[in-house]
Amino acid sequence: MKYVALPLPLIELGKTIPVDVLDPAGKLLLRRGQVIFSEQQKELLRAHQASMTHSDALAWQRSFDRMVQHMIRDGVDVAIIARASMPSEIAEADYGDGRELNGSWLDLQELLLGLLYQGKTALNPLARLDGIERRAHELLAADPDESLFVLFQALADLTLGYSATHALLTGVVCELTAQKLGLNETVRQTLFRAALTMNIGMARAQGTLALQASVPSDEQRKLIREHPPLSFDILQSFGLNDEDLLDLVQGHHELNEFNGLARNRESRRILRMADSFVAKMAPRKTRLAMSPLRAAKSLFLGVDAETAQLGSAMSTVVGFYPPGTYVQLANGEEAVVIRRGARADQPITVSIVNAAGMPLAKYLQHDTSEPPFAIRAPINAQRIKVRVSLEKVHKLLKELRARDA
Questions:
Q1: What angle do CA 269, 272, 276 make, to 5 degrees?
Q2: Model's pTM, two decimal places?
């Protein structure tokens, strides 16, 4: 029988334990429905290596993920979500058949957020990470433009949980850039996983920092500096022993490119650049987000020829105006970008506000390579008051794919 360690740090005193608690030999320590009342009881269970069955662990984790999803949906503060304890009940539906994930990018964002927030206490983390990665690659392969659209829209909404959005968007930027540069699939897969997990050592703080209205404290700055080795330690505690992955995570803030494994030098450069690129385009309570155009231009400031080549590849695959971001057109309309164009500065857009400032019920699609619809300037997402319909955009992208087929 396969057993999983009980997540004692995430169990709140006085709450019901919804699983049978066993020792590693299968001896019953606590029957499901009982309660842990004191820290002394926790220490006793820790001493006996308190565990549970694999099926109970998976079901309890599904219950936790659903609870976090509901908290996010209800607008609960990120700091409160970060302190959430394991639920005291497991629904029958949580004992599913173990089938793989088939959700959307936002479903993956919620699942990854739970994993990142739990850190070392996460249940069955590698299987969960595998499922998230598999589905993310499927969604990206099916439509890169829609993937970028959903994730850039999510990046502007800090209530969704910034750490997971940042991780997924950084992973997508890394993957598209690595494809452009011709890196092999094995290298790309390691790079993608590193992007998802590199900030697990400060995931909760990352969400708090994005929402707080003051500059980081000295303690927060220390965590920002020291989180790569913390993430390294957490991943090792999961049982990950991929030295290339651990090297990327350990060195993703390292400015000396010759530290770490030589074979990962290019991957480290891609990861560090994508991490910084996405962070610049994310809003904070203390500042507006940098426009994608300015963020792209920053990739070329004061860099050597090799770094400029990498920056060129990254800005090309994402675009100066990526899907999901906003622009003003030459005709005065405000539009959301839905698809990258043949050139980085000429995407396909959909107008959502007319020149008089009135919202448009019917989306008007434009090719910005045509002079009347050329882009006049980017618009910060926080200045847009119209809610974009993902359903309408999905339909338009579907029609564009069918036209191109």
A1: 140
A2: 0.80
Q: What is the pLDDT of residues 51-99, one digit of tens each?
A: 998 888 888 988 888 888 778 777 788 778 888 899 999 886 677 544 4
pLDDT digits (tens, 9 = 90+) for 2-38: 788 999 999 999 999 999 999 888 888 999 999 999 9
Angstrom distance (rounded) from CA 53 to CA 14: 22
**Contacts with 33 (C-beta within 8 Å, 6 or more apart), sequence order:** 16, 17, 18
- How many other β-carbons are positioned within 10 Å of the β-carbon of residue 203? 27
> In three state form, how does the secondary structure of the chain look?
CCEEECCHHHCCCCCECCCCEECCCCCEEECCCCECCCHHHHHHHHHCCCEEEHHHHHHHHHHHHHHHHHHHHCCCCHHHHHCCCCCCCCCHHHCCCCCCCCCCHHHHHHHHHHHHHHHHHCCCHHHHHHHHHHHHHHHHHHCHHHHHHHHHHHHCCHHHCHHHHHHHHHHHHHHHHHHHHCCCHHHHHHHHHHHHHCCHHHHHHHHHHHHCCCCCCHHHHHHHHHHHHHHHHHHHHCCCCCHHHHHHHHCCCCCCCCCCCHHHHHHHHHHHHHHHHHHHCCCECCECCCCHHHHHHHCCCCCCHHHHHHHHHHHHHHCCCCCCCEEEECCCCEEEEEECCCCCCCCEEEEEECCCCCEEEEEEEEECCCHHHCEEEEECHHHCCCCCCHHHHHHHHHHHHHHHC
Asked if residue 179 lies in contact with residue 188, where contact means CB atoms within 8 angstroms, the answer is yes
Residue 385 structure tokens: 């008051």
Closest by CA position to 285, among listed 77, 116, 123, 68:
77
Domain limits, the chain: 3-56, 100-318, 326-404
- Cα–Cα distance for residue pair 146/336, rounded to 1 Å: 12
Superfamily (CATH H level) for 100-318: Hypothetical protein af1432 (1.10.3210.10)
